[in-house]
Design brief:
homooctamer, alpha/beta, Rossmann fold, 45% helix, globular
Amino acid sequence: MPKVLLVLGSNSDLPLFGDALKLWPALGIEVQVEISSAHRSPQRTLELATGAPGQGIEVIIAGAGGAAHLAGVIAAHTILPVIGVPINVPPFNGFDSLLAMAQMPKGVPVATLAAGEFGATNSAILSAQILALKYPQIQGKLTRLKEIMEQNVAFKIDAVLAGLG
Amino acid sequence: MPKVLLVLGSNSDLPLFGDALKLWPALGIEVQVEISSAHRSPQRTLELATGAPGQGIEVIIAGAGGAAHLAGVIAAHTILPVIGVPINVPPFNGFDSLLAMAQMPKGVPVATLAAGEFGATNSAILSAQILALKYPQIQGKLTRLKEIMEQNVAFKIDAVLAGLG
Amino acid sequence: MPKVLLVLGSNSDLPLFGDALKLWPALGIEVQVEISSAHRSPQRTLELATGAPGQGIEVIIAGAGGAAHLAGVIAAHTILPVIGVPINVPPFNGFDSLLAMAQMPKGVPVATLAAGEFGATNSAILSAQILALKYPQIQGKLTRLKEIMEQNVAFKIDAVLAGLG
Amino acid sequence: MPKVLLVLGSNSDLPLFGDALKLWPALGIEVQVEISSAHRSPQRTLELATGAPGQGIEVIIAGAGGAAHLAGVIAAHTILPVIGVPINVPPFNGFDSLLAMAQMPKGVPVATLAAGEFGATNSAILSAQILALKYPQIQGKLTRLKEIMEQNVAFKIDAVLAGLG
Amino acid sequence: MPKVLLVLGSNSDLPLFGDALKLWPALGIEVQVEISSAHRSPQRTLELATGAPGQGIEVIIAGAGGAAHLAGVIAAHTILPVIGVPINVPPFNGFDSLLAMAQMPKGVPVATLAAGEFGATNSAILSAQILALKYPQIQGKLTRLKEIMEQNVAFKIDAVLAGLG
Amino acid sequence: MPKVLLVLGSNSDLPLFGDALKLWPALGIEVQVEISSAHRSPQRTLELATGAPGQGIEVIIAGAGGAAHLAGVIAAHTILPVIGVPINVPPFNGFDSLLAMAQMPKGVPVATLAAGEFGATNSAILSAQILALKYPQIQGKLTRLKEIMEQNVAFKIDAVLAGLG
Amino acid sequence: MPKVLLVLGSNSDLPLFGDALKLWPALGIEVQVEISSAHRSPQRTLELATGAPGQGIEVIIAGAGGAAHLAGVIAAHTILPVIGVPINVPPFNGFDSLLAMAQMPKGVPVATLAAGEFGATNSAILSAQILALKYPQIQGKLTRLKEIMEQNVAFKIDAVLAGLG
Amino acid sequence: MPKVLLVLGSNSDLPLFGDALKLWPALGIEVQVEISSAHRSPQRTLELATGAPGQGIEVIIAGAGGAAHLAGVIAAHTILPVIGVPINVPPFNGFDSLLAMAQMPKGVPVATLAAGEFGATNSAILSAQILALKYPQIQGKLTRLKEIMEQNVAFKIDAVLAGLG
């Protein structure tokens, strides 16, 4: 089963990824969750980034708030695609994090998503879209997800999970 | 050879992707360029999105300015990963485009990069990172790119191309 | 009776249009409400846009939050006037939506109103002002509305409805 | 021939409306241009607003920069639809004007367009969309405009004018 | 006793001026409060502006939120100094109002204060500073206020009122 | 002749006040210009603030860019009305200065004007409006200025000066 | 024991520095807390700045909200390093304070930290890093702090204090 | 002679530090300049951070643009004080860099200065203020600098250097 790594700067960011953590298995993807900070545990973060391929990880998702460097620091140490989710913490509600993630310099991209829960949930889907190129069994799931969304308009995680079977 | 599609809202956005258009072949990736607007040529945009898989395209990059809907509209019509590049046009220099691309709702992610040339160039690298999962020959190129960057610090396209061979 | 279409990206946006939904009938206008997302139900959105004239609809109002593409996508598929209402959802409270709606490219305008309840309520009045050009009976209602506002200064929906009779 | 009024806060804003001033006649609409300031010539502005219906004007477009009150002040004195175009003057390039136009209070909407040339050009198209409800001959022009844009993707005024005939 | 006029766009803005309404009499200034909207009751607003000198009013304070035109519209119709207080209403908390008030064009200034309660309270003090030039008895009060603030550091209205005697 | 003090943080800000420096004498007001920085020459700034009344100065205008503290620092040391003009220096073009001037705490107001030339020119007019309360001869000038503006719409300094006589 | 001075614009800002006030003694640093406002008690602020060296103070920390001039005003009167903490007060949540602190002119730097609690807590650590250059006993504490953070990832004050012993 | 390390993300940022590079020797401080990117040469950056103490470096200054992580990444790997200078590169002119530097999480501060040349020049002065605590000979230089600034108001590098002798 293809595998992604979700790195969060803090335990308190985990609830934001509630829907995502249900989506990954429903899309046939294994997720490994680690708490690590680019600044407070730089060594651990570096080891997560460089050790990922050896653990069969193919996509890394990093969620962080404030001066959100986590995704960029990981991207500096890997050639795996890195997805960044700006966390909407006070006082600027993720506006600073969005800029600190998206505006990466030439050579080291971070695939930045929406600040907050929208981006957190979408990180599961974007990683699935990426993995579906290599793992065709995910394609059917994503096509089914599009049908569920077209029918329900809203994205309700229960309806999505039920639809994905 | 793996293939990506670059869709731009306007011909005038093409120079911004100058480095990217050199990087794709150097990384062993074919790129197809199309000019289409989410708003002025919606039918053409829709056909590009839905027709992409049939043409062997595996990643779509969309660059647009202002109320930059192009990437989101394409993402609504495909399960391929979609990368968005906010174009830094006046009067807000891509600040509006960054928000209009990144803040996508649950269910339909756009992998948003930096506004302007940084994001344009990085769209080649991010698409290569995504394709490298499936096409191992690209992995060596990306590892080589990291070495070149570590040695040169700066990202000079000529040095990069020379290094990639 | 002239008719407008209100398209919302989500059921949860409906309360914001509470006053508007009372104003339309009071101004002699029929309103049809549909929930559709530019990204999750693009096909449905497209059909709403292209099918509007056939249903006697003359003005379309679209309310959406985040990377609010709904109004722009509808405007791409119709020559009817399209009014956009940025919805003030977290984390950026409609600031992103305002830019994603207003900054439309040449050729496809969206008549953008205030983020949040002010814009939602005003969408009823702007659509009435547009329809009043063709349906003179609405002109008297709008003139009466101006008098009520001049007298009450505040815009209290009950006073407005009572005054419009 | 249906008629619109374009009010600009300053003569220096006129070039921004270069394409718009060609589009109006091409779409079969007469345009009357007036220079008036909400603050420097409030009496003249008030007379333009209240006198518009008597001159056969059916839509008013107001372009202004900085604390752009012009559209709002006009809207306070008329029941005609008022379109606002934020002018991108330094030092904030129309960011202030966009907020000062869009964020109108309940009861008095301004149909706000993009800051700068995009909005200026689109003011001609939005006014035509509004007038087309009453004047069916404009509908064919707008449908033709959509076809021209679909074919050219870009919005080049010469191609548009040639296409409109 | 010198006299100022406080015009608010809405009754709901009055509590924000709670401290100010206590400060004016304590500083020996009479305040007349009126509710009027630049957009909903433009005629009443105009009459307040033009009628002010006849009522012995020497400074006008205008508080408004959103696209806050009230101060600018009043300033257009009077040569009295006009003080603007941006009201911190959702969704942008007065950020739009600050820009809509401060960025006035050449010829018609608005003396803009801080968004929210700070600005509201300070409008009493700024108007007193202006009037003190003509009414020397206010100078002693303002000098006393500076001493109270120097002693208390904080600005607690009860301490201030007690100190002013 | 009534007298105002213009304090600028830097000699290079002087050209921005070109029109203002012509307006003051035309309005019958004497202006004293001083260059002083809140941070680099705090002692001199303090002396200018506290010494102003002794020199017959009745209004102080402070222009500064970046973290523009000049007006606030002066206001802390005087009971004279202080007008702040945010200077539009790079990289943020006065956006930082506007916030640093307007958002003053309770007790010490700064009458903030528009960033850049608009605010600079208006500082002459606002100071005249303030002084006109005490010096009736200025009232006629200001009334004349309103008439000139109503006639010319634009604010051209030559026309204004000619009109003021 | 080395000594720092914490100056806050208001008593109500003190809780934000709760963790910092525990960190200073744990890092072997004495902290003196003073409440003083740049604007309301300028004399007291000036005396705190100029008197600091005489009291053995080697670093000054200033926390303030809104148009946060406190750190800049202190920096103007001392050659000690000055650390600024933007306080996240409504309505702009410290966004104005961040700009008003960071954007200091040439010659007078303020070492600006994050708006809100992050910056408040970090002011203790930055001051310790500065003092550790001169007082080697602090170096061990800071090295220990880095180890604690690497182990805990999160920054929990209790774990930090326990670890520092 | 005390020594600081200046790390820049790119050679092209060097001219911005022109004045700073003259100030350091004039203040009796040795400066070592290195070009290294947090993202393109992460290994080199890490070695610069960890190797600094061994080279006698006591303060590190990092200048970077866009998603400016350089200062934060260095701060994660050292207990030396780290000063961050946001570089004003397009399209957002350092606004993104300011947020990406200042908003650091608890535990790892970056002493952030103004975006652009002001911050670059001030990094020399702030580092001197820090070093002056330990190296009293710098104190006289800084006191002299304050006198020069008080006399000249403006900060002209030639006058400053001449004054420092």
